[in-house]
Design brief:
Helices cover 44% and strands 23% of the residues. By secondary structure, the protein is of the alpha/beta class. Strands 1-2-3-4-5-6 form a six-stranded mixed β-sheet, sandwiched between helices. α1 (33-50) runs parallel beside α2.
Length: 133
C-alpha cells in the first residue's frame, strides 16, 4: 500500500495512506513537548484537509508522556481531532512497561468524544483493522 511521507525528523515520521485515507505515525525514539505537538497537530491538519476518519499511532519506541503533554493531548488535541471527523484509532503502545501506563485512559477519553480505540501489539495488524473499516 502506498504511503506519502508528510513529516519526518529524528524522533518520528508521519505518513498518509491516500487510498484508504489513514493518518499514520511511527515514533523512532522518545518524543515530547513541541516536537510531539507538531507531529500530532500536523496529523490533525491532514485529517481535516483529507476528510480522514482513521488514525494509526505506532508508539512502540516512545516512553510515557510528560504530565503536560498528556494533559494537552487529552484536553486539547483529542477533542479537536474528534470534532474534525476522527472515528477510528488503532493504537500500538510503547514496548516499555512504563510507556504503557495510562493507555486505558486514552481508550476511555476517545470513547467520550466518539472515537473507537483499539489497542494492538503489531502495527501491521492495526493497519489491517483500519483497512477493513
Amino acid at each position: 500500500m502506498f504511503k506519502e511521507t508528510i513529516l519526518e525528523n529524528e524522533e518520528a515520521v508521519l505518513w498518509y495512506h491516500p487510498e484508504v485515507k489513514i493518518i499514520h505515525y511511527h515514533i523512532k525514539h522518545y518524543v515530547f513537548g513541541q516536537r510531539l505537538r507538531k507531529l500530532l497537530d500536523t496529523g490533525y491538519e491532514l485529517l481535516k484537509e483529507k476528510g480522514s476518519q482513521k488514525w494509526l499511532s505506532d508508539d512502540r519506541n516512545n516512553n510515557v508522556l510528560t504530565i503536560e503533554d498528556k494533559h494537552w493531548a487529552l484536553n486539547n488535541w483529542l477533542p479537536r481531532v474528534a470534532s474534525a471527523g476522527w472515528k477510528y484509532w488503532a493504537l500500538v503502545p510503547s514496548e516499555m512497561i512504563i510507556g504503557q501506563t495510562g493507555m486505558q485512559e486514552y481508550v476511555n477519553e476517545g470513547a467520550k468524544v466518539g472515537v473507537t480505540v483499539k489497542i494492538f501489539t503489531n502495527p501491521d495488524k492495526a493497519l489491517e483493522w483500519l483497512n477493513q473499516l
